[in-house]
Design brief:
Elements: E1 7-12, E2 27-28, H1 31-41, E3 45-50, H2 51-57, E4 65-69, H3 75-86, E5 93-96, H4 104-110, E6 114-116, H5 121-129, H6 139-142, E7 148-151, E8 157-159, H7 168-173, E9 191-195, E10 197-198, H8 227-230, H9 246-250, E11 254-255, H10 258-270, E12 275-279, H11 307-318, H12 321-324, E13 329-332, E14 334-335, H13 342-351, E15 356-362, H14 366-372, H15 378-390, E16 394-401, H16 408-421, E17 425-432, H17 454-474, E18 478-486, E19 494-498, E20 504-508, E21 517-527, E22 530-536
Parallel strand pairs: 1-3, 1-4, 2-9, 4-5, 5-6, 9-12, 12-13, 14-15, 15-16, 16-17, 20-22
Antiparallel strand pairs: 6-7, 7-8, 10-11, 18-19, 18-21, 19-20, 21-22
Helix pairs in contact: 1-5, 2-3, 10-11, 11-13, 16-17
Length: 537
């Protein structure tokens, strides 16, 4: 492999849908930076682009190959990016990220050359080492690389054997790039995700009857500490909550070291990043795997949160200059309610005072939660947000409508819980269930939108009611925001993001201060997603 012959374009299409991001405009995930990190280690030149920028302007220069990171919802945008690529280039197109879990469908619908399934670092390294990005590379060579799919010489899709999940040591051996962060427009005001934990500790499974007749037989393998045993489910039901593919795609939870996370954050802040999200399916899994020796973390309850290591991590982050002087904002992405205790809340509030985090509750019905394979029950979510509120932390709670097993009774219980949560939370986020490939519910038909499903509408209406009240409650308050982009509907104005979460803010007379963190006085609600404010010094 001659690194000098490669120059790779990486397109981050995550959240781009049909071509333009609507809901994640201020987010930069860790996936594309991880891919760049592998190429950087191998001495290969690369550059990151957003899908929407490529679709608007095309590729600004020639590259030898194209890598695309995307989710299942982004297939249309991915197909359009590939079409743009092939107008002027003939290098191979490689797709990775959650979109690859659709296997044959991903290749057939996008007409990419190669898909990378699950964790990508080792696979990408082998693609380079085998010189497999050339059009002339033989099919026999591609067959040697685990964890990929491609078209064989007859035009049929060939999926190689899945690659084994990386060990804790292998996971820690790869480092996401920080150099490439400046490839992203508005990186200085975006939420930049730094991976702390990969994989999930919930290797339970759904107990619901699946469309093809499979159902949990209570064989006991779910409780095994042996990954091979857990994956021997006699019914072939993927591990984890029925609607989630993370355990199947990315395996048991593994943590990076505090030093790795802190060094990455420090380098990003040196490049003028101001918002860091400590990313994990469950941040409270951080360090739990360290306490199990050679065993894998597949039990969501034992051991308890590793308080010592979490405090070590957060104390080091808090001591970074731009964090300690208030020029950067740090928050946790997700936590599981059953691991959240007063001890955890004390540490978070000590080092990340006033910060927010998300809890996935999904349903307010305990019986429904058990059927889904949830590790945390609704009552534990209520307990957790009360603790968070007590310590000045701001919880955002997620629910999913249209889930398999949803009934009028489960929806009624969910509505009740949403209203019980209201005094203690900042926001409720509602999603419509989407069947994800490689999850237990991957073959379940998608439900109707809430507006066409009276039972789902009960949940959506409750969430909208709570969220509108929360926006109204902001009027008359001062909040810390980061000024992100010009407001083209108000001369001299800017659009800002509230640091600890909430609606967008239209800030008057702020266009010249984009990129700064300022305090804003909220004076009115404009729409359900936008409030208005003025800078106060």
């Amino acid at each position: 492999m001659d690194a000098a012959l490669h120059k790779i374009a990486i397109v981050d299409a995550t959240g781009s849908g049909k071509g333009k991001r609507r809901f994640t405009r201020d987010a930069i995930g860790a996936g594309s930076r991880s891919v760049y990190g592998v190429l950087e280690e191998l001495g290969i030149e690369a550059k990151i682009f957003l899908a929407e920028d490529i679709l608007e302007k095309g590729f600004p220069q020639r590259f030898s190959s194209l890598f695309i990171s995307a989710m299942s919802m982004d297939k249309i945008a991915v197909k359009r990016v590939i079409s743009s690529w092939r107008k002027n280039a003939d290098g191979r197109v490689v797709i990775g990220g959650p979109i690859s879990s659709e296997l044959d469908s991903t290749l057939l619908s996008t007409q990419a050359d190669i898909i990378v399934i699950g964790e990508g670092e080792k696979t990408i390294k082998e693609l380079i080492e085998y010189d497999a990005l050339r059009e002339s590379t033989s099919i026999e060579t591609l067959k040697k690389i685990l964890g990929i799919g491609f078209f064989d010489s007859n035009g049929k899709v060939k999926i190689n054997g899945f690659r084994k999940y990386s060990s804790r040591e292998e996971f820690r051996a790869f480092q996401a790039s920080t150099k490439c962060i400046t490839d992203y427009p508005k990186y200085f005001s975006a939420k930049v995700y730094v991976e702390c934990v990969r994989g999930c500790s919930n290797f339970k499974g759904t107990k619901l009857l699946l469309p093809d007749g499979r159902q949990c037989s209570d064989c006991g393998f779910c409780d095994s500490y042996c990954l091979e045993d857990r994956l021997k489910c006699p019914e072939g039901i993927p591990p984890g909550c029925g609607f989630c593919s993370v355990p199947n795609l990315f395996g048991p939870a593994r943590s990076r070291t505090p030093d790795q996370v802190v060094k990455e954050i420090a380098k990003l802040l040196e490049k003028n990043v101001k918002r860091i999200i400590l990313s994990a399916p469950d941040f409270l899994d951080f360090g739990r795997d360290n306490e199990l020796g050679d065993n894998l973390l597949m039990n969501p309850y034992f051991p308890k949160a590793n308080i010592k290591l979490i405090e070590e991590l957060l104390s080091q982050i808090a001591s970074i200059k731009n964090v300690s002087n208030g020029k950067a904002w740090i928050e946790v992405e997700n936590i599981k309610a059953h691991l959240f205790t007063e001890e955890v809340a004390k540490i978070l509030s000590k080092y990340l005072p006033g910060s927010s985090f998300s809890i996935g509750c999904e349903t307010g019905s305990e019986s429904h939660a058990i059927q889904l394979g949830r590790s945390s029950m609704p009552k534990e979510t209520l307990r957790a947000v009360k603790i968070a509120h007590k310590y000045g932390l701001k919880a955002h709670v997620y629910f999913i409508h249209g889930l398999p097993g949803q009934t009028k009774q489960t929806a009624t219980e969910t509505v009740k819980l949403i209203h019980n949560l209201e005094p203690y939370i900042e926001k409720v986020t509602i999603y419509r269930f989407r069947p994800l490939p490689m999850s237990a519910f991957g073959d379940v038909p998608p439900p109707k939108p809430a507006v066409k499903n009276p039972i789902s509408k009960m949940i959506a209406d409750a969430a909208n009611e709570v969220n509108f009240q929360k926006k109204t409650n902001l009027v008359g308050k001062k909040v810390r925001v980061i000024l992100s982009e010009p407001n083209y509907r108000e001369e001299g104005g800017a659009i800002a993001n509230i640091l600890d979460g909430g609606p967008m803010v239209a800030v008057e007379n702020a266009k010249e201060r984009i990129g700064e963190i300022v305090t804003v006085y909220i004076d009115k609600v404009i729409t359900e997603k936008l409030v208005h404010g003025k800078i106060v010094e």
